[in-house]
Amino acid sequence: MATSPSATAPTDADHRAHLYEILDSAGTVVVITRAADGQLHPRPMAVVRVDEDGTTYFVTPRSSTKVAELEADPRVDLVFQSRTRYASISGRGRLVNDRAMIEALWTEGWRLWFPEGKQDPEITLLAVDPEHGEYWDQSGTRGLSFLLRAARAYVTGTTVEPRPEDHGATSM
């Protein structure tokens, strides 16, 4: 019986779906913007929401350095990491000043940065619209499979051969 192409080689849609799963499970990511002098400026930020299309949202003060950097150069990179899963997204950042959305997403923990609460005029959302994504996944059975392949490579003096489902890249 013939197998489907996705059983042997993941499709672009498979890679995209897996990447979104990793993004949706990330709590904190490194958001990288570009300073006026061209230097990369990374900082950890909490993920507020991830849409089905991979658009990722963060909350930030309007007066922050990252807002000024985005206004000058909207290119943004996001880096997600856990013990066994990694992802990278390149995209375009934009500010979202939708008060209803801010109110719906509000958590009391934000009061540390926005003492006036939901109505604080400094609150804005940073949305990153993805253009390209890549992931590396060694979790669950993928990790077990990797360990078995690594042991085999070690014993036989060969290298570990990557499997298509362990790594994927996609245009978004």
How is this structure best described in words?
The protein has 5 helices and 8 strands. By secondary structure, the chain is of the alpha+beta class. Strands 1, 2, 3, 4, 5, 6, 7 and 8 form an 8-stranded antiparallel β-sheet that branches. The two termini are 33 Å apart. The radius of gyration is 19 Å and the shape is elongated. It has one domain: Pnp Oxidase, Chain A (Roll).
Oligomer: single chain
Examine the secondary-structure arrangement and name the CATH architecture. Answer: Roll
Task: State the shape.
Answer: elongated
| Element order: H for helix, E for strand | HHEEEEHEEHEHE
Rg from Cα: 19 Å
Q: Can you count the helices?
A: 5
What would you give as the CATH superfamily?
Answer: Electron Transport, Fmn-binding Protein, Chain A
Percent strand equals: 35-45%
CATH classification class: Mainly Beta
Structural class by sheet pairing and helices:
alpha+beta
Helix content: 25-40%
The biggest beta sheet is recorded as: 8 strands, antiparallel
Q: How many individual β-strands?
A: 8
Total domains: 1
Average pLDDT:
83
How far is the first residue's CA from the last residue's CA? 33 Å
CATH topology: Pnp Oxidase, Chain A
Uncertain segments of ≥5 residues (pLDDT<50)?
A: 1-6
